Task: structure prediction
Amino acid sequence: MDKLHERLAQLDPPLRHQLEQRDDGLLITLIDVDHNARVTRLIRAEDLRVERINLILLHAINELRRKGAQVPLDKDSVFINDLSDQCVSFHS
Result:
């Protein structure tokens, strides 16, 4: 989860994020405190693929932008490129 956390941390400010590893997947919450906006997405464990994660992040960021957030959307700062180095792992 480190790479995903690092990518999302690059959006702070304006966004804060929370990642919660659950039995059924990964819960991602993006928060824009200035605009009192929050979105939450659950990515099921079987859907943890780079393309799927990036698509879900894109939709979540666009939802925040519709709520007034001024989130930059730059592929080099937001999206992950691969799942190596334990970007997202459900193994102990």
